[in-house]
Prior knowledge:
The protein is of the alpha+beta class and 250 residues long. It has helices at 26-30, 50-66, 77-85, 97-103, 131-134, 170-186, 190-198, 210-217, 244-247; strands at 34-41, 89-95, 109-112, 117-120, 124-125, 159-162, 204-207, 223-225, 237-242.
Amino acid sequence: MSSRNTHDTTDVPAVGADSPFRQEHVLRDEAPQFVLPLVVRIEKTGPPARTDALETAARAVLVLLTDERALGEGEWAEAVRDWQDARIRKVVRRARGAEWRKAGTLPGVTVHGDTTEVRVFPPVPLDGWPKELAKLQVSGTDLDDPEPVAAAVEPGVPVLWFNPGLGMSAGKAMAQAGHAAQLAWWELTDAERTAWQDSGFRLAVRTAARERWAELSGSGLPVVRDAGFTEIAPGSATVIADHPALRARV
């Protein structure tokens, strides 16, 4: 599978059922493995809110996928194609102070949330991280929401629903949110993609109630199933991407 240029015109989903989150593909495991690095800024004082961090990470993935450098003959396009031809891995690391400033010198895009800064970088080989990123910590990234998150979401806003039965660190959950956003993106038509991009990739992250999760699980909406490399068991359903355009087709 290779990435598509979002400037093409089509009325059918770009990838759909071929998403690597939905099926097992042996060839994906045999291909060279790449990872999409994301770095979240966490200073000693004023850390970001957890839900905002998850939403910002998800938007950051979409911003990367639609960056001109990731499309066609852009300078990141080959790396993005290689990454999407293998397992779709994302790793979230954290940085502060000088570490964050050094990370900002590398090619990438910084995406801002209400309380969060996330910088996303073009994919790199699994064992070929730039030294500025390789030394950043990945484990133990945990965040809290200082205020209760409103359960209601504005009508028409895509929602990434998290499995209420799974506990994940903030870093792990940020990667899962990114997976869900990318999975939804692949299944949209070009017109639907354009509308989402024009909105600034508005989306919300919520943890589903158990009854809601059971309903969503049987809805036919895209489901992220984790490969099980860290924290949770292989095959665990982590997030369901509830985009209005996709819901209208199920």
